[in-house]
Amino acid sequence: MIERGHHDMGGLPAGKVKRAEHDYAEWERRVDALAVLMGGKGVTVDERRRHIEALPPEAYDKLSYYERWIVALTQALLQRGIITTGELARKMTQVERRG
Amino acid sequence: MKDQGKYQALTYYQLMEVSLRELLVEKGLVTEQQVAATVEDMRRRTPERGARVVAHAWTHHEYKARLLEDGTRACEELGLDVPALKLVVVENTPQVHNVIVCTLCSCYPRMLLGIPPDWYKSRNYRSRMVREPRAVLAEFGLKIPRQTRIRVHDSTADMRYLVLPMRPAGTRGWSEERLAALVTRDSMIGVALAKQPRSK
Fold it and tell me: Which terminal residue of chain B, N or C, has fewer Cβ atoms less than 10 Å from its own Cβ?
């Protein structure tokens, strides 16, 4: 039998629901918007979800919701060849230097 | 958490967002204007949209029947766009209490309620709601009578649920607008009832 994925948690024992809410930060809202806009270009919800589900369990638990989303969207775009790892690395260095 | 200011170092993931966005803009796939407009559009999607649908259903029997029959189309009737999704509206009655969850991820009727709250996406909610809903609802302060059945609906990317809460007693003759103010986000998720007319 195939073991269930880390994300597949329905019915498993867990603790009390902490009724936390936070107002989403602007960068989180932009991640959401990028996902929606790229959805319009054919990058599907299922595709992004597959990349979220492929995260190692430790990363899945450690990352916040929109951190998982940006990783998954980036993975989807890399896999589709819309961007390359080289371009992304260069851009990240450039943005970081700019501060 | 506030947006990081110019002088604070970005986290790795914030850096990733900025970089990805700029790359997509350079490639002509999105524009900064589109990103800003989409953020604003999402900000405008608040539970008040869902409340409008519920209040309309409470006051129009035929509309309610159409809403339960085909949620997507009934929302479109009110000018609310439900993009490429099947929306299933489930009605609470004295016999059945409905509650929604997404065990696999975070699917949620965003077009009517906005971005889901943190707890909806939490491991504890996702894991336990399908196994011990009564206990979880009690943690939300909602005690469901033993004779009432609880139905838990597990959402998917393509099929989202919205709970149609029961109309509170003592609201006869109320306008839709006044009724809509009683319809909370949590009541449309199913972890609360609609507000009582006299409660704050």
Answer: C
B51 and B36 within one domain: no
Of the candidates B148, B39, B32, B91, the residue with the CA atom closest to the CA atom of residue A28 = B39
- Contact list, A79 vs chain B (CB under 8 Å): none
- Per-residue pLDDT tens over the stretch B138-186: 999 999 999 999 999 999 888 999 999 999 999 999 999 999 999 999 9
B6 falls within a domain = no
Query: B167 and B104, same structural domain?
Result: yes
Number of domains into which chain B is organized: 2
The 8-class DSSP code of residue B116 comes to P
Tally of domains in chain A? 1
Taking the CA of residue A93 and the nearest CA in chain B, the distance in Å comes to 9
Q: Could you give the CA distance from residue B80 to residue B101 in angstroms, rounded to a whole number?
A: 22
Complex prediction ipTM? 0.92
